[in-house]
Amino acid sequence: MSKQIVRKAVIPAAGLGTRFLPATKAIPKEMIPIVDVPMIQHIVEEAVRSGITDIVLITARNKEAIENHFDFSYELEDTLEKKEKKDLLEISRSIGKMCNLISVRQKMPLGLGHAVLCAAPVIGNEPFAVLLGDDLIDSKVPCTQQLCEIYARENASVVGVMEVPAAEVSKYGIVGGDMLRAGLMHVKRLVEKPAMADAPSRYAIPGRYVLSPSIFECLRNTKPGKGGEIQLTDALQLLAEREKLLAFQFEGTRYDTGDRLGFIDATLAFALRRPDLAAGVREIMKRHLEIRG
């Protein structure tokens, strides 16, 4: 496998978002904002900051709002320009300039592995990143950039991992293998949502990957599991048997924005670091805590 720079990323966004009903009845889950920035924009910004130029968005019916968000809006921008709201105008235009967005439909809900496979014609024979929209990772160096650097240095596919408590192992795909150095593992085994007794470690994959194009052949050879879905974890196990697969313990704070409490946690964290909002948010939190004793 020759060394290549990672320029493409796949962002699966075809899910129904049922955990956030009723909010997601009419709008995509990915467009729910963390303060005033949609979750999907945070994910795209991480990819762009990591050197990604082409975003392959895996969508489904009724997801057009995501594509529209990353397009230019003539009516809005014309109105802002006439009203001389230059700051807001620049915000709107900057989103349209952010990246080259390529939308691919996942016509049947056949799992994460299938969603990634849908991107194969666009990715071609290049390495690529995968970023899951429910995982918001806050870090000085973008998590995806950290993985891209490992890929370039080690010339091998790499998954981002974090160590989780034993009680949470069953919520994640878990990796096991040989530690090459602190924070870097040569992966030999992957298990999707195991019981702690069956888990090869407590290193969990929260939704960041940089993969060689070999993963597509592995996905084509992965049999559907429960519900007829193709699991990305199963395909990664096959990849690990065919070529070197690494796991890297990334630096950063991960928020599970697919969970209501995780979403609230992320919203508070991002609001508290903004100079225009921090003092007011602290006052609101203090008031609510006093009211509830």
Features:
293 residues; alpha/beta; two-stranded antiparallel ribbon
Helix content: 25-40%
- Binned strand content: 15-25%
- Uncertain spans, ≥5 residues at pLDDT below 50? none
Report the span from N to C terminus. Answer: 61 Å
Question: How would you describe this structure to a colleague?
Answer:
This protein is α/β, with parallel strands linked by helices and 293 residues long. It has one domain (8-258): Spore Coat Polysaccharide Biosynthesis Protein SpsA, Chain A. The chain is 36% helix and 24% strand. The chain has helices at residues 39-49, 64-69, 74-82, 86-97, 112-117, 120-123, 143-154, 214-220, 232-242, 260-272, 278-291, and strands at residues 8-12, 33-34, 37-38, 54-59, 100-105, 128-131, 135-138, 157-163, 173-181, 184-192, 203-205, 208-211, 245-249, 253-256. The protein has a 5-stranded mixed β-barrel. Strands 2-3 form a two-stranded antiparallel sheet. Strands 7-14 form a two-stranded antiparallel ribbon. The protein is globular and about 60 Å long.
Task: Please outline the helices and strands.
Layout: E1 8-12, E2 33-34, E3 37-38, H1 39-49, E4 54-59, H2 64-69, H3 74-82, H4 86-97, E5 100-105, H5 112-117, H6 120-123, E6 128-131, E7 135-138, H7 143-154, E8 157-163, E9 173-181, E10 184-192, E11 203-205, E12 208-211, H8 214-220, H9 232-242, E13 245-249, E14 253-256, H10 260-272, H11 278-291
Parallel strand pairs: 1-4, 1-6, 4-5, 8-13
Antiparallel strand pairs: 2-3, 6-12, 7-14, 8-11, 8-12, 9-10, 9-11, 10-13
Helix pairs in contact: 3-4, 8-9
